[in-house]
Every structure is written in structure tokens, then in C-alpha cells.
Design brief:
With about 250 residues, the chain is mainly α. The protein has twelve helices and no strands.
């Protein structure tokens, strides 16, 4: 027998080596979502990537809230930072703010039942952010829905929610606010009416917030007029407040 044939006959058959599935590394962009306020969260273009990010943000939020109960505030602090925004005090543009916060709204909404008094920093950041003056109507609608969900699930947050909304009564006093003021006030009263109808007992909190925010007598006339105009608009749907605020 030829040598080559002998070697072939004596050699064991070759068994194909199964290939291990390649594990996808954790996306650096996903990590950046949490580290820098989620600016990369809105860059996804593939549907599966968008879904994965939504799941990631929802789970991150859930874990951050759970860790607070265990005394660990590291991830929770990052979550709070996402929602902190003031047009006058931060350099972030309104457009960038909308892009950063949008993917987190559904993540918090999925965990809204957990937002009790233990999470006052997060709820405070959500309520007192300048979201209502954002340039995107779709964003404002989603955000207002989140606020309504929070107060509906936890009426204890109604006083803070009312205080955060009534402060917008005088929006439009500054020259830079005039153009957007009508839209802001429309958004404001749409949400106030929703809260008032959803939580009938909130009238006292609304009246207290209006009383606390009432301009001093030394305030400029345009401030006084703007505040009164919004009070009167409030009374169109919150009839029960008339005795308390007039």
C-alpha cells in the first residue's frame, strides 16, 4: 500500500470543531448614556439597538432605585443628574436637553410605582426641570404624561407638582420669553387641568401653591397682570378655587 494511503487509512476522521457564538461586548455608548446624561441614547438608528437601549435604561433605573434602599446612591445620583435642567443656570441648549432626556422618560415611567418619598431628589429634579419650555411639542407631551403618572400613583407629590407648575404663571415677563410664552401657558394649563380632574382633592394644594407664588405688591405691573391672567384661566376649569384665590 502506498505510504500516503496508509497514513490516510490510519488517521482518525476529522471532526469539525464547533464555533462558539461571539458574545457582543457591552456597548461603550450604553455606558456613556449614564455617564454623560444620555447624549448618546438618542443616536441609535437600528430598531433592535433602540429596543436594547430602552431595556438597558429601564433596568438601570430599576437597579438605581433598588440600590438606594441598600444605602448605595452612586447610580441614583447619575439618574437624578439626567433630569436636572435650568435654562438660566446651565449651558446645555434646549435641543440638547430634549435629546438627552427623551430616552429616560419611558425608563422612569416604567418604574413610577416605586417613586415614593425615598426618592425626593429624583422627583424634585423631574418636577422642577424647565421641561415645559422645551422647543419640542412631542417631548413636552411625553414629559407631562410622566408628571401626571407620578402624581396619580403618589398623591403625596401633588404639593410639589403644583408648586413646580404655578411658577410658570409669570413666564413671558422677560423679552426672551415672549415668543414662547403662549405655548408654555397652553401646556401648563393643559397639565393642571388633567391633574385637577385626575385628583379631585388637589384643589387645596393648587390654591396653596398659587397663594405662595403670588407676586409681592412691589412687583412690576406686567408681572402682576400676567399672574392674574393665569389665575383667571385656572378658574375656568378649577371652579372650586374661586373662594380661595380671589
Amino acid at each position: 500500500m502506498p505510504l500516503a494511503e496508509a497514513e490516510s487509512a490510519s488517521s482518525p476522521p476529522k471532526v469539525p470543531i464547533p464555533q462558539r457564538p461571539v458574545r457582543r461586548a457591552v456597548s461603550r455608548k450604553q455606558k456613556a448614556v449614564v455617564e454623560d446624561g444620555s447624549s448618546t441614547a438618542a443616536t441609535a438608528t437600528q430598531p433592535d439597538t433602540v429596543i436594547n437601549k430602552a431595556v438597558f435604561l429601564r433596568k438601570f433605573t430599576e437597579n438605581a432605585l433598588l440600590q438606594v434602599k441598600e444605602g448605595n446612591h452612586e447610580e441614583y445620583s447619575k439618574l437624578v443628574k439626567v433630569f436636572l435642567y435650568s435654562q438660566r443656570e446651565t449651558s446645555t441648549s434646549p435641543e440638547q436637553y430634549v435629546q438627552d432626556v427623551t430616552p429616560w422618560i419611558s425608563a422612569v415611567s416604567a418604574n413610577v410605582s416605586a417613586l415614593d418619598i425615598s426618592y425626593r431628589e429624583l422627583v424634585g429634579a423631574i418636577l422642577f426641570s424647565d421641561w415645559i419650555a422645551a422647543p419640542d411639542d412631542n417631548f413636552v407631551h411625553r414629559y407631562s404624561t410622566l408628571v401626571l403618572e407620578i402624581v396619580s400613583a403618589h398623591p403625596a407629590w401633588v404639593p410639589q407638582a403644583m408648586a413646580s407648575l404655578v411658577r410658570w404663571f409669570i413666564y413671558g415677563v422677560q423679552a426672551t420669553e415672549v415668543a414662547l410664552a403662549p405655548a408654555v401657558h397652553d401646556r401648563l394649563h393643559a397639565l393642571l387641568e388633567q391633574v385637577y380632574r385626575a385628583i379631585p382633592t388637589c384643589g387645596a394644594n393648587m390654591a396653596a401653591a398659587i397663594t405662595d407664588a403670588y407676586p409681592f405688591r412691589t412687583a412690576k405691573a406686567n408681572v402682576q397682570v400676567l399672574f392674574l391672567q393665569n389665575i383667571l384661566r385656572t378658574l375656568d376649569y378649577a371652579i372650586g378655587l374661586r373662594r380661595e384665590v380671589l
